[in-house]
């Protein structure tokens, strides 16, 4: 089982050094500390275990270290920055693992960019030695790249000529969309194994600056302070991300505010979100990791990642909730009213990133709104993210609970945007801004099943007589379809509207990589990925498809 919970005291591959306002995040991979047997992490190459630690470090820098305004990513190895994703690891991995691995690493790099863009925590990379493939893609996610000018340090994206696959962590998109490298130059760069170095790397905008190797860290420190001077992060106590309590059983995963029930016969996971049981603290200084919006974001994130990697055959995720909508509303009010406070800003951004993980997960998503549920505001986003939402009309026979309702809050109108830059309401009612204005009138009001259907906020509203059959048939129907076709269909329908760097990476680039990872030119018996390191030359099917 892959566990995404970690902490700096357990890191095997990264070292964090602090000298406020600058932190150094040093990549020093233990080549023997692999996630599974069968390969060694030589040349600072990485596997999922390395990236789990990186993801954790990025989160902790944001929450636990508000005094840090800039972060320098560098290598702890002599003469090598990072050789990218470990090729032998990829060669022995299943196709689903490779795709989920690339998805997770993309999400981590997006989180680095998000920290720069929204948290005032600027990342830069100081490169000495070879920086290839995923190593350069990591650098591309940072705000500034400094290269040692020593005649040997270089950057490269050698995946096409060397492995017959694509750079899997956003490299192609960031080259042209972020760094604005001219297309013909990008074409040459991506088909050249040895990459580029020195002045040409700067001229082509592959890096921002070159300095003598002996001055690399001095220059990085200077640039880090310059970038950090633009930050508004406060120098005060952070929020400690305490260990996440979780219990895993054969058919259940239990957290404090979330329970996941796994039905292997029907290939479903039912995620029950428990709403807050008390009002939020009156003082923002008192917020800690138990603050309900932060706690539920962390638990949902862990559950999503666990299900992606450890429960590949569970094809449909069903979201339910229970609790007091008024208490959810009161927490949302704190998030909306204090959006400029650094703590609330980070919590809102964490919620946004967690919901984005849900959007790009290759699973069918259903939401069931029943009596006693608390699909309100930030929790309603789970229903808006779902491919279908069913809301029970009326009450169940013998149940004295009031009929189901939902409610909107300010959290549905801006803070929790998708990777296409739109809110889920804007994506739902694409090109209909007047509908969004109409929905604003409903903020904080309970919305029953009749009005919810009229407003277009739910898909279907069966009554108690039809409820069980409709849900059962929908689940059975999903299980009968091709999982490949469903993944493609759902991803295409979820992201209407404009494209962003994120949406291109997860839609266009990931779709191509997903396909290429299955092609014989890469993974066949004579494919480049399969033969890498053997000395044998790959044999390619020359037909363009």
Written overview of the protein:
The protein has 545 residues and is α/β, with parallel strands linked by helices. It contains 21 helices and 16 strands. It has helices at 48-64, 87-92, 95-118, 134-140, 159-163, 171-178, 183-190, 198-203, 216-228, 292-310, 325-337, 342-359, 380-385, 424-428, 433-440, 449-455, 464-480, 483-494, 501-516, 520-523, 528-531, and strands at residues 14-19, 22-27, 70-75, 80-82, 122-127, 130-132, 144-148, 155-156, 209-211, 247-248, 252-254, 258-263, 268-274, 316-322, 364-369, 388-391. The strands form three sheets. It has a seven-stranded mixed β-sheet, with helices on both faces. Strands 1-2-3-5-7-9 form a six-stranded mixed β-sheet, with helices on both faces. Strand 2 (22-27), helix 1 and strand 3 form a beta-alpha-beta unit. The radius of gyration is 24 Å and the shape is globular.
Radius of gyration: 24 Å
Distance from N terminus to C terminus (CA atoms, Å) equals: 37 Å
Mean pLDDT: 95
How does the major sheet shape up? Answer: 7 strands, mixed
Count of strand segments: 16
The DSSP helix count reads 21
Which parts are unreliable, with pLDDT below 50 for 5 consecutive residues or more?
Answer: none
Shape: globular
């Amino acid at each position: 089982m892959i566990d995404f919970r970690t902490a700096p005291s357990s890191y095997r591959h990264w070292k964090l050094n602090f000298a406020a306002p600058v932190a150094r995040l040093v990549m020093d991979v233990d080549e023997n500390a692999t996630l599974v047997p069968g390969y060694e992490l030589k040349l600072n190459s990485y596997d999922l275990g390395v990236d789990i630690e990186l993801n954790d470090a990025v989160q902790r820098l944001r929450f636990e270290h508000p005094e840090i305004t800039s972060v320098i990513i560098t290598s702890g190895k002599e003469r090598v920055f990072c050789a990218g994703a470990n090729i032998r690891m990829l060669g022995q991995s299943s196709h689903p693992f490779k795709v989920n691995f690339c998805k997770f690493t993309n999400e981590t790099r997006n989180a680095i960019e998000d920290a720069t863009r929204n948290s005032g925590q600027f990342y830069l990379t100081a490169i000495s030695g070879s920086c290839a493939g995923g190593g350069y893609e990591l650098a591309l996610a940072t705000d500034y790249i400094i290269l040692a000018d020593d005649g040997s340090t270089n950057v490269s994206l050698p995946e096409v000529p060397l492995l017959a696959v694509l750079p899997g962590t956003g490299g192609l998109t960031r080259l042209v969309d972020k760094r604005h490298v001219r297309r013909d130059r990008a074409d040459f760069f991506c088909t050249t194994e040895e990459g580029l170095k020195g002045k040409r790397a700067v001229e082509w905008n592959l890096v921002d600056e070159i300095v003598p190797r002996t001055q690399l860290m001095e220059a990085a420190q200077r640039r880090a302070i310059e970038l950090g001077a633009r930050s508004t992060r406060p120098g005060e106590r952070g929020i400690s991300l305490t260990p996440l309590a979780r219990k895993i059983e054969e058919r259940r995963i239990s957290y404090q505010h979330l329970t996941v029930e796994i039905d292997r016969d029907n290939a479903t996971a039912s995620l029950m979100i428990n709403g807050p049981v008390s009002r939020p603290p009156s003082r923002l200084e008192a917020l800690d990791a138990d603050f309900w919006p932060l706690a539920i974001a962390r638990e949902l994130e862990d559950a999503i990642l666990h299900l992606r990697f450890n429960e590949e055959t569970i094809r449909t995720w069903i979201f339910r909730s229970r609790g007091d909508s008024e208490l959810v509303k009161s927490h949302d009010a704190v998030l909306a009213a204090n959006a400029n406070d650094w703590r609330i800003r980070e919590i809102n951004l964490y919620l946004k990133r967690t919901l984005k993980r849900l959007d790009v997960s290759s699973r069918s998503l259903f939401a069931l709104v029943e009596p006693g549920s608390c699909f309100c505001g930030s929790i309603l986003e789970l229903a808006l993210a779902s491919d279908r939402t069913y809301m029970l009309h009326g009450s169940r026979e013998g149940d004295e609970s009031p009929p189901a309702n939902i409610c909107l809050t300010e959290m549905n109108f801006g803070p929790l945007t998708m990777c296409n830059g739109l809110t889920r309401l804007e994506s739902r009612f694409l090109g209909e801004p007047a509908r969004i204005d109409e929905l604003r009138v409903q903020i904080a009001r309970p919305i029953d099943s009749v009005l919810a259907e009229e407003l277009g906020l739910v898909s279907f509203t069966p009554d108690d007589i039809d409820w069980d059959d409709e849900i059962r048939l929908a689940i059975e129907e999903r299980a009968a379809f091709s999982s490949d076709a469903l993944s493609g269909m759902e991803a295409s329908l979820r992201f209407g509207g404009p494209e962003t760097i994120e949406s291109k990476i997860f839609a266009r680039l990931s779709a191509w990589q997903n396909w290429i990872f299955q092609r014989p030119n890469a993974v066949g018996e004579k494919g480049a990925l399969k033969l890498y390191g053997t000395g044998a030359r790959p044999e390619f099917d020359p037909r363009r498809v």
